[in-house]
Amino acid sequence: MNVTRTSNLGTFGIAVAPEQKKYWIEIQLIDEQKKPVANMPYMADNHPSLGDEKPASFTGVSDSNGIIRIEELTLRTLFLKIEAQPLADEMEKRPLGPGPRRSAYERKMSPIGVDEETGCIVYYTVIGDLCNKAPKMECWDEQYKKFNKTEWVKYKNKKIGDDKSKIIPQYPEFHFPDPLFPGLGIDIIHFNQKIFIEICPFRSWKLLLHNTKDYSIVNAYNQGLMANLTYEDSNYFFKFFDSFRDLTSVPSWVNGYQTYHALVIDVPFREGYKGAVFLDTAEFLKDQPELDRKVIIKEEVEGKLQIRLLDSADTQLFYFYSDEQVVVAWRGSQEFDDWLSDFTFRPIRTSSRIENSKIPQQMVPEGFVHKGFWDAFRLAKDVFKMEFEHLFSSINKTPSVKKSLYICGHSLGGALSLIHATDLKKSTPVLYTYGMPRVFTLSAIKYLEGITHYRHVNDADLVTFVPPEAQMDNNLYDLFGTFVGFLTSVTQLINSKVNRGEKDECYLHHGDIVIFFKAEQHYTRLEPTLDIDGGVHRKALVMNAIFSMAKFYLVPALNSEAYSQAEELQKKNTALFPPNANPQQDSMINPMHHLMGDRYLPFLSNQLIELIDPAKPMERKRYRQKFINKINPYSGPGKACEDERQRNLLFNAMQEKLSVTLEISKKAEGGSDALERFRSLQTDESDEL
């Protein structure tokens, strides 16, 4: 019985009230796949009715079925907390459940649901809703603080009570929505029944990438998405990077009318990306007005000190890293200075310095590199020396575990990516580039044969034809500047078409080509021609193209009989896939083919969708089939050009062989789930490419 003292006249009497009714609750901790979360130490406070009374506290451990049963509760909110470290360690092991993700906003506005099978109440939580404190977490964010002073800070200036010196760490908001860790409040209306607490796994997204010499279309798409991301500013990049820790949806890029989702796997949180760095030389030099956007580079060439002034300071790149993976992406041609780099054709020797040594070395022992591209690379490396040293240490942090290094870039970014891959050749980078120009000359290309590099070309992309495949060096660059040197280079180009030698240090492409080839089919027939008076004079043999065309995704490096047949066929007239060069296309050179976000990325995305979901109706498949139906067998006007017809049929066979490029992803841990997740996110935007 409860005893209460009361008085109307100033003297105290004793009133006797009945004992307050007690309540119970049974809680089952489960993950998103409805599996129990067992052996979790917990503590719970049942707040009393009077403010000066101490809450009733309960402690224990969830049983083998994840069940916590608490009795002797008063009719007040129950606040449940779980020991942080065991919970975090356990939920890192749990994979994400199937189905759509619940956003942080949905969890906040609608945190409670009903289990369809049992009818029990379900509380949807993340580990931060339950933790009694922050679990021990590696200081993955230290590099943000160190290298991105204006973009990201490690701590929020939130105060606790009157202690002005205590600052709350900023943990990932999705998993830790309240840094004060108040615990999960369970409402009294859910007493005297069983409830579920569904805990979102403590996981992080990570790009699905494969460290292999074989071609992977998943690598092509994900690295293409990163190459495209370089054209955004630093704020967009860090927002994208933060989405790796937000399980609401997968990281994505939106171009205004279509969303491109990254192909990601979910990994334990500690295995996710630990830091990211965004570097922009133009932004850096804005903060250094005394430099007037110019940088002085000192280097030793053949034992002599050379000092050069770089006045086109506009190079951007980013990188992010985990314990197993480093991803580097370089931005392509966007500003006038970038195009100036593209068209500074002069080849020069590369030089760099061995770490901790005064001895200069050649990045490549023979041959030359495009001066504009080399200057842009050296500019970034000299301005951001500390960041490049950190990148190098991130790649080689643990000698016992070799990290996978992925480098990518579009256009000028592809050129800088190749130079960077050359600089990091010992780290065996996996390089994927898109619409890149030529960078190195003949002798240098031979030295780079061991680098895994797939070079994507969208049909007759103009930029892939510069600088010309010729020996372009001349002293007039030094005497009269870039413009006169360029004009002389053009003269050298014309001369090389007539007098080119086998050992000339001409510019060549590096890497295995992957080409998005728009194929035509021609036919010949006799057609009447008119004389001057308008009368029929004679018939002439005329070549025309049939109206239908098809665009194929061709990877010559694949070990397939169709590819070798096509190459043999084309040897009769021109090499289809000549090494270190562009193939001869059916289309005219077109600068509009060069756009990354509007040409390369959509074609990559649509090809990936086609391979993941073969039953999906797509315009691209309909166009190809219509084209093949017209030429096999050929029944149109005139006589088909037979070599070209056989080539196109083999192109179609090559296209059908592309499914093998998806096998490595299907076999990878979490790969099948990543492919299915990507398939489920696709909408029906136009794929007429």
Keywords:
689 residues, alpha+beta, five-stranded mixed sheet, 25% strand, elongated
Helix proportion range: 25-40%
The rough form would be described as elongated
Radius of gyration: 33 Å
Largest beta-sheet details: 8 strands, mixed
Beta percentage is 25-35%
Unreliable segments of 5+ consecutive residues? 143-168, 336-342
Cα-to-Cα separation, first versus last residue? 81 Å
Briefly note the structural class of the backbone. Answer: alpha+beta
Number of helices: 20
How confident overall, as mean pLDDT? Answer: 80
Strand order of the largest sheet: 16-19-20-25-26-28-30-33
Number of strands: 34
Describe the fold and architecture.
The chain is α+β, with helices and mostly antiparallel strands and about 700 residues long. Helix content is about 30%, strand content about 25%. The chain contains 20 helices and 34 strands. The strands form 11 sheets. An 8-stranded mixed sheet has the order 16-19-20-25-26-28-30-33, with helices on both faces. A 5-stranded mixed sheet has the order 6-3-11-9-8. Strands 5-4-7-10 form a 4-stranded antiparallel sheet. Helix 11 (about 410-425) links the parallel strand 25 and strand 26. Helix 15 runs antiparallel to helix 18. The longest helix has 18 residues, at about 480-500. The radius of gyration is 33 Å and the shape is elongated.
Brief account:
The chain has about 700 residues and is an alpha+beta fold.
Q: What's the SSE blueprint?
A:
Layout: E1 2-6, E2 13-17, E3 23-31, E4 41-46, E5 56-61, E6 67-73, E7 78-82, H1 84-93, H2 104-109, E8 112-114, E9 121-125, H3 127-130, H4 142-147, E10 184-186, E11 194-199, E12 203-207, H5 217-229, H6 234-242, E13 252-254, E14 259-261, E15 264-268, E16 275-280, H7 281-286, E17 295-301, E18 304-310, E19 316-321, E20 325-330, H8 336-342, E21 347-348, E22 352-353, E23 360-361, E24 369-370, H9 371-383, H10 385-395, E25 404-410, H11 412-423, E26 430-434, E27 440-441, H12 442-447, E28 452-458, H13 476-480, H14 482-499, E29 507-508, E30 512-519, E31 522-530, E32 536-545, E33 550-554, H15 561-570, H16 596-612, H17 619-631, E34 639-640, H18 642-656, H19 663-667, H20 671-680
Parallel strand pairs: 3-11, 9-11, 20-25, 25-26, 26-28, 28-30
Antiparallel strand pairs: 1-2, 3-6, 4-5, 4-7, 7-10, 8-9, 12-15, 13-14, 16-19, 17-18, 19-20, 21-24, 22-23, 27-29, 30-33, 31-32, 31-34
Helix pairs in contact: 5-16, 8-9, 9-11, 15-18
